[in-house]
Amino acid sequence: WDPYIVLNSILVLSYVPLRTYFSESSQLFKVDPMGITREMQIFGVLAMAGFVKYRRSSSLAEFFSSIFMYAKTAILICTYVEDYRITLWYGLAILVLFFTLHQKEDKSSCEVTDLNTGNFSVVEEDSEEAWLVEFYTTWAANCLPFTYTFNDLSRRYGKGKLKFGKVDIGRFTSLAKKFKISTEAVRNNELPTLILFEKGKPVPFMRLPRKTPDGELDENFVLLTKANIINFFRLDERLSNEKKEAKAAKKRASSGNNKKKKKRQ
Predict the structure, then answer these.
(1) Measuring CA to CA, how many Å separate 132 from each of 33, 171, 222, 230, 234?
(2) For 23-56, what is each residue's pLDDT tens digit?
(3) Burial 254-265 (b: 16+ CB within 10 A, else e)
(4) CB of 134 within 8 A of CB of 193?
(5) Are 8 and 63 in contact (CB under 8 A)?
(6) Which long-range contacts (CB under 8 A, 24 or more apart) does 77-85 make?
(7) Span 66-110, pLDDT tens digits
């Protein structure tokens, strides 16, 4: 069991027995003309946000991260309406978990190369193979859950002429500046960034999230879901072409061997 999921679940579910001690005259339980309490309104809005996030999540890990955030936000609002002192205790517990527990990294076998300023030349000097590189930081909320998606894509598409790499631009900031990636805010919509390299150079417009010529994020935002990444970078098409080329090469080699045998005879 992942301690991050277990302890956050306990914290969120602890609200259920706690609410039984709230006063019956609490503002939370007042019913509006439609028969809906304020508590139901708070959790309803955040449940809708959670559903939208589920549809957009690139992995189950990212979904859990978001759903815990929404649930804890709802609890903080509800406890504040009832008694701000309860909110302070909940807030303290949330901060302790935030600083002591993190989601587990996906350490299963994959085809991703760890890159840095010292070895990034393997990408820039590769004239034969393409590279799909993830630029991430350890502190950006979206990056750790995305690891599962990126690793999974590498296992499926990274065994041929397309290589997968990742670089922590929180540590190697010169690469962030070189490829014009912002690392300013924790909730940064630019992280993680995926860039496709061919013949050692970034392919024009083959970048997610996309940017305008002015360097701003494109308003037509493409979510980093597995399906979107496959379609945007044409990974299925690349894999199909590789198989065709391998089949043709095998056929040529077989034909050449047959000709040699005939000459010997």
Answers:
(1) 55, 20, 17, 11, 12
(2) 878 888 888 888 889 899 999 888 887 777 666 6
(3) eeeeeeeeeeee
(4) yes
(5) no
(6) 77/42, 78/15, 78/19, 78/28, 78/39, 78/42, 78/43, 79/15, 79/18, 81/26, 81/27, 81/28, 81/38, 82/22, 82/23, 82/26, 82/27, 82/28
(7) 788 889 999 999 999 988 899 999 999 999 988 887 766 655 567
- Contacts (Cβ under 8 Å, ≥6 apart) of 256: none
Task: Indicate left, alpha or beta for 180 from its phi (over 0: left) and psi (-120 to 50: alpha).
Answer: left
- In this structure, are residues 98 and 105 in contact, taking their beta carbons and an 8 Å threshold? no
- Cα–Cα distance measured from residue 146 to residue 136, given in angstroms and rounded to the nearest whole number: 10
User: Is the pTM above the cut of 0.70?
Assistant: no
CA atoms within 13 A on the CB side of 5: 9
Q: Which two tokens stand for residue 255?
A: 């034909």
CA 194 – CA 130 distance, rounded (Å): 13
pLDDT digits (tens, 9 = 90+) for 177-206: 999 998 876 556 789 999 999 999 999 889
**Is the model's pLDDT at 61 over the cut of 80?**
no
Give the separation between CA 189 and CA 186, rounded to whole angstroms: 9
Residue 203: HSE in the Cβ half-sphere, 13 Å Cα cutoff: 17
Does the pLDDT at position 260 exceed 70? no
Positive or negative, the Cα torsion across 33, 38, 42, 44? negative
